[in-house]
Write a structure and sequence with these properties.
Blueprint: E1 5-7, H1 14-25, E2 32-34, E3 40-42, H2 45-59, E4 64-66, E5 72-73, H3 75-82, H4 86-94, E6 101-103, E7 106-110, H5 111-138
Antiparallel strand pairs: 1-4, 2-3, 5-7, 6-7
Helix pairs in contact: 1-2, 3-4
């Protein structure tokens, strides 16, 4: 996978993250970057959201990788991202669960397709859990 940037846990100090978090959270005015030559650039709101998510993950002690959505993953990388075994992923691919292409004898998957599949699976699991909770409440299993 082509990684545009990677930040490892602990590589940015807590006080720096706090300052960045406060700068991004200033309500009423857009976040801005100031270049070395003094040029000021407003940060688009979508990018502010991404930066806030990065800071949140770093504060939680997680590393962060940034990659283009069109990047391709190996089956090992995709399996790690989905938190499944590689053989299970191969079965999903053989069943046509999401698209992939062959490069010689190797499968390649688009990052966006893997993320979409993961999000769909997460939504299905949340719906099932919500239904189980509703049923448990109806049966009086919750106080």
């Amino acid at each position: 996978m082509t990684i545009a940037a990677e930040i490892r846990p602990g590589s940015v100090e807590g006080r720096d993250l706090e300052l960045i978090e406060r700068a991004l959270a200033r309500s009423g005015s857009p976040a801005r970057l100031v270049a070395v030559d003094g040029t000021i650039v407003d940060i688009p709101q979508q990018l502010v959201g991404v930066l806030e998510a990065v800071v949140e993950q770093l504060r939680a002690g997680n590393g962060v990788s940034v990659a283009p959505l069109h990047a391709e993953l190996t089956t090992v990388e995709a399996a790690e991202l989905l938190n499944v075994s590689r053989p299970h992923l191969i079965k999903l691919l053989d069943r046509g669960e999401f698209p992939h292409r062959m490069v010689g004898t190797h499968r390649r998957l688009k990052l966006i397709d893997v993320l979409t599949y993961r999000d769909e699976q997460d939504a299905t699991a949340r719906e099932a859990l919500d239904e189980m909770t509703r049923q448990a409440e109806e049966l009086g299993l919750y106080d």
